[in-house]
Amino acid sequence: MISRSDALFGRLSWSQINNLEYQLRGDDRVLAALRADDSLERSMIGEVGNRKWTFKRTGLFRISVRVCAEGDDADCATLVESGGDKYTVLFPAGQSLQWRRTNNRHRQEWAFFGVDGAALIVFRPVITDSKYQASVGVSAAGRALSDLYLLVLLGWYDLVSKYRDDAAKSAIIIATAWGAT
């Protein structure tokens, strides 16, 4: 993996390597990785260069995601549900960003938005060959964010969690339907 100063933010894409690991690639290089921390997949570890973060979902009805840097129990970011498909990312120093679906009607997109309403980082997830992946676009303002890599990992973690939840719900519905026949 490379350091932030070496990163080129041209074409970025998340790819599923196996059931428990995803890689962010840019210019045919691995820039970041997101891996399940345990077999129950309750949390995941994000890694960029020599930096690591733990991402963990909490709550049943109102989901939030806690992000902690390696070796630190204090949250360095928290993703909190604001209602519907809207979330707020809170940072300890008081800054915040919005995380929500975009208004693109032709495909699924999620993005982090600044206080001015401009999209900073946009994710376009798709399922291909039974694998979950996404292209990622970063605006010029997004490239200037000090927490850019953390946000690229957090957004992907949230989308992977939603995807896995939907897959589990579908499996339960199918199993229930099979059992009813």
Task: Write a structural description.
By secondary structure, this protein is an alpha+beta fold. The protein has one domain (about 5-170): Porin (Beta Barrel). The chain contains 2 helices and 12 strands, in the order ββββββββββββαα. It has helices at about 140-145, 150-180; strands at about 10-20, 20-25, 30-35, 45-50, 50-60, 65-70, 75-85, 85-90, 95-100, 110-115, 120-130, 130-140. A 12-stranded antiparallel barrel has the order 1-2-3-4-5-6-7-8-9-10-11-12. Strand 10 (about 110-115) and strand 11 form a beta hairpin.
Q: Any idea what the shape is?
A: globular
**How much is the average pLDDT?**
84
Number of helices: 2
Cα Rg: 16 Å
Helix content: 10-25%
Q: Give the assembly state of these chains.
A: single chain
Structural domain count:
1
- pLDDT < 50 stretches: 1-8, 168-172
What summary fits the major beta sheet?
Answer: 12 strands, antiparallel, barrel
Instruction: Please tell me the CATH architecture by its name.
Output: Beta Barrel
CATH level-3 fold name: Porin
Q: How do the strands of the widest beta sheet line up side by side?
A: 1-2-3-4-5-6-7-8-9-10-11-12
> What is the level 1 CATH name?
Mainly Beta
Structural class: alpha+beta
Give the terminus-to-terminus CA distance.
51 Å
Write the layout of secondary structure elements.
Blueprint: E1 12-18, E2 21-26, E3 29-36, E4 43-48, E5 51-58, E6 64-69, E7 75-83, E8 86-90, E9 96-101, E10 110-113, E11 119-128, E12 131-138, H1 140-143, H2 148-180
Antiparallel strand pairs: 1-2, 1-12, 2-3, 3-4, 4-5, 5-6, 6-7, 7-8, 8-9, 9-10, 10-11, 11-12
